[in-house]
Amino acid sequence: MTFVAKHKKRSLLFDHPVRVIGTPGSGKTMMASLVEFRLVESILRDQSSENNRSLASVLASCGFTENERPKIAAVRIPMESEYRDFWELPYEPAVKTKLVLALIQARTILALVRNLTSNRRRRLGDIRFIPREGAGAQLEQIGGSDAENVVARARSVERAVYSVGASLLPPSLDNIAEEAREPYQPFEAIREIEIDWDGKPCRLKPLTILDDVHTLHPDQFEALFRSLARREIRFARWMMMRMDALSPNAVFRSTDADALPGLKVERDYLDIFMQTDVVRLDERRQFRKMAADMADRYLRLVQPLRDRNYNRFQDLLGEESPRLSASQVSELRALIDREQRKLQISPDRRRKIQQAVERYVKGAKSLDLGEEVQLVMTRVLLHRYAVRTSGQTGNLFADDPEPRQPLKVKSTIADAARLILNQLFNRPFHFGLDDLCDASNENAEVFLQLAGALVERMETKAIRNQDPALTPAQQQGALRDKSGQMIDSWGFPFARKVRALIERIVADCREVSAEPNAPLGAGANAVAVLETEMKDLLASDSELALILKFAIAYGAIVAIRDYGQGGKIWCLLELSGPVCLANGLTLNRGGFLERRVSDLSLVQEKV
What is the phi/psi pair of residue 167, to 5°? Predict the structure, then answer.
């Protein structure tokens, strides 16, 4: 629904070549598997379960079905390492590309037939391939429109091409089998496939989904992509790939970034990014709903919890407001008293600030506004008052001047208070299902890794006959440990330099977030570079552009382009959820530190 049904060019997704781009774990392979014809047919034939009915509704919204009949016959072709091996053969690039393209097309035909016959509702002879107009010669190449002949031809081509790539010594061009040298273009010849559906003819548009095309050699992928972008092709074709196969400009989703010279996005091909660019609140709300369902399914797979009838993940995540001990509250009060005297703020002014905080708390919806939160909110406002009255001249006899700008009590001050309490007293800051979802950056695999760390602790408590529910402190401990492990396991290109850059940004964000007047409200979790500077960087050959590309591609940072604030347009480099969890930073967007490209370059040059 998110990436296909709501795509602005959905009506063209089965006409143009499509690149489906996402970070590891974003759901590319899962989506490719879900829409394969054999599974679509099973879903449509069995509407007895709520799951199948909801899936059928989604498939219809995406254009794979219509009126409870299939419209698309999709197959997934894993792009395993053997395809890249063809690029090492001692032939001209054009020859190597034609061999790989022939192998892909032959395997697509065979996969289509397997899918169409897998549920035993039709035989090979019940399938008919419909050619495009004017494709008579090409139809002969593929074995005609009779399914048995088409399959026989596909098998002979697959066998011949595979033998070339798998040979210990590759044959000379003259010794390559005739079946591999002859023209073979089913993607251009076939327009539709006709089958029987409930006694009536049903025409399907064929779709090949090439999964993990980023494993190809870059030059090989370029040549293959150009071949698949030919307008004569009537087959639908999708290519699933990771971001690191793209240029820095494409990873940053620059509006003028095209895949290859001469190929224009939305004219010659379409992109589906497995990260949405809609309003973040809507994006998070949608992911939270999906993640909650995933977590409940996960919980039911854990026998000690299932045996004790724990079926709802959220019920085991304690979300009660954390409380400081009496001694910690006394320590906090003493800290605020000392700072009040140091700032030379009158008791009457402090009393007015405390009353403003109390009025806010009475009308607020949040439940986490206990005594210690109110105390730190008062502390933040005392420091803001001191900043706004410093150097102020007026009545010489007034020891309680009014600030230049009135003090306002807002939710961001409450958020800042919770963050500061975490830094001062390790009071739990990240806990609950919403924080878990938001820290996952809308990535299903990241969510399941973080949720898995919590489920492990729940399972351990259940085995010990303890209540498996986790307190906020236990949740924060598990999430920080797991996030740290995820960061330590980074092994992608430039990982060492990415880690150094992240550590520098984290240190700067923590320093600003700890300031007693909370200048950025809920705190900082990003740096921002002017858009003009970022465009120049991405257009250059700088190593920094590559470092940032891999940081985004593997989920270390998130780039937000054209972010307007302070009358300027910024490119935000926001720390990912796991990085924020591991370092106690806010998950809210908007708190950033202004930087120049040269500041980022200095960090990576020191590594």
Answer: -65, 145
Residue type, 172: S
- pTM across the whole model: 0.83
Quick one: which of 138, 142, 112, 135 has its CA closest to 124? 112
Measured distance CA(264)–CA(258) in Å, rounded: 6
- Three-class DSSP labels, 508-559: HHHHHHCCCCCCCCCCCCEEEEEHHHHHHHHCCCCHHHHHHHHHHHCCCEEE
Q: Which residue has the tokens 């977030």?
A: 513
Amino acid identity, residue 255? T
Rounded to a whole number of angstroms, the distance between the first and last alpha carbons of the chain is 43
pLDDT along the chain (607 residues), means of 10: 86 92 84 93 90 91 93 94 90 93 95 91 88 78 86 93 87 87 89 90 95 91 92 91 84 71 84 69 77 89 92 92 94 96 92 94 88 95 91 58 87 94 95 93 89 95 94 96 95 93 95 94 93 91 92 91 90 95 93 92 70
Q: Which two tokens mark 28?
A: 């590319």
Cα–Cα dist 583/593, whole Å: 17
CB atoms within 10 A of CB 135: 19
Torsion of CA 548, 549, 552, 558, to 10 degrees: 60
Whether 310 contacts 468, CB under 8 Å: yes
User: Residue ranges of the alpha helices (H) in 203-255?
Assistant: 218-228, 248-251
Return the closest-CA partner of residue 504 out of 586, 581, 572, 579.
579
**Residue position matching structure tokens 């498996």:** 468
Classify 71 as helix, strand or coil. Answer: coil
Neighbours of 344 (CB within 10 A): 9
Phi/psi for 134 (5° steps) reads 75, 20
